[in-house]
Design brief:
By secondary structure, the chain is of the alpha/beta class. The model is unreliable at 1-34 (pLDDT under 50).
Length: 584
Amino acid sequence: MVKENNIQFIFIMLLVLLFGCKKDEPFVYVPVDDDPIQIDISTNLARYSPGEQVVFTVDKVPVDIKIRIKHLNEIIHEENLISTTWIWSPPITDFKGYMAELYRTGDNTEEIVGTVAVDVSSNWTKFPRYGFLSKYGYLNESQIEGVIGNLKNYHINALQYYDWHNKHHSPLKMEGASPAASWVDIAGNTVYFETVNNYIQVAKSKNMASMFYNLLYGAWDDFAVDGISTEWMTFNDANHQNINKFYLPEGWESDILITNPGNQHWQNYIFQKTQLVYDFLDFDGWHVDQLGDFGTFYNYDGNRVLMDNEFKGFLNQLKTTFPEKRMVLNAVNQFGQEQILNTAVDFAYTEVWSPHEGFADLADIIRDNYSSSNGELKTVLAAYVNYNLANNPGVFNTPGVLLADAVIFAFGGVHLELGEHMLGKEYFPDDNLLINQDLKTKLLEYYDFLVAYQNLLRDGGVFNNPVVNSGDGKINLNNWPPMASKVSVVGKEWSDKQVIHLLNFTDAINLNWRDTNGEQHVPGLKEQMLIQVQFDKTVTNVWFASPDVKGGSTQSLDFSKNGNVLSFKVPELRYWSMIVIECG
């Protein structure tokens, strides 16, 4: 082996001397023996417009490694890996997901050594993958690029800038005709204008949108000084004696006073303040927030304010005022969601709280939002995993996070969880829990899977309940919703294909997605399971992919059909595996 590698090394070096290498694309020779290898591969952008070239980068170039790019299970491009950087021009078809696979072959076997996904979409809201920012102290260029670069690797294509603002009723602090250099947010944290602005610019360079966070009805205690009338407020009584307040921790800059979002004067005021934001910061839109259903309110005239009924009018006026800007409104625990989704919001957003604690609740919210938007809008869920565990410093529980993501992704949603750190609490700057290396690696694979197969996970199809049985008794199956100690089946069909998701709850401690104390266990690995599906159509191909197996790459499966019973073996199941049945 040593002698062969020496000859191989001399041959490669002669080629390098003969043909030369570009300085920005060094040829890194790494001899490959029988040991497994792993190549880190990444792309330069989070999302690509049709016609935009993809730049791939790898950390090393072993010999005999090939590149292939697939759309679903179809190979559309192949070449040899000869450099640490290369360019691929995707098809110009809009809204498609791809998987790039690095592999080597030998002894009639194939080894996947690296994968990365590519999203070609002209509009990020078609397949939103939402992240967040929450800390805007003085940061240098390298620090900002590090945060954005990390989120780019998860294909995060839009960011919510949480608590970036000055006062809720005056989000951008001004000094004369120019923005202030800095200000203090409601929790007393210093925010630098330059940091916010630089984040926006660096995100834009990676094709990531920036959405500024603010309430639709919030004012600080000093509202009168800034020209806000008491008559624009909501009250706890019909005699306008007690302004409605949302109380915040002692020592914060102010409580939040609740204005009336249906009041025309308030709308005019806050939209003028919003225009100032857009004048000086290149935000793509407004991430509008609310505080949920927390009481009975009255306006200044003593009439009851049905807060959720006011959302539609506010959003419609917001879109009229800023027609080129994006907007979304958080439906806290689905409060007001039907009204929200009957406006021009660009996607659905739900912050999930009790009693929606089960995995089935996550799926129901995603499907309800899709239905309420006439099959148009995708859902982002703010769902805080390991909630009690996050009370103290520690690490996220990997099985709890992955089970929640598997369910959310399988049903076509996406999880708001990634920013400068990972979310465990509703106050986004809270960073008690860290991501260990195992979870980081697995999340990269899960987000690659979400992107590569977005045309199955998030692009049409109708959920159904296929009749699926275990042919060898290795697993206990049930159709969704999940049951303890079983593998749940989620079906989705098109005219030319049937998708079957297997979600593994066999070893789940409970069916609560929050895994609040971090107690979920890693599911036991299931291998080579004989699956039988009642399927009347003519089958042309069956293939398999899982974010837990070989970086999410596809594997074609042998199958047989006896009457209307289709049989095949699923190679592996850890958390989540997907089978695609193609038919003629």
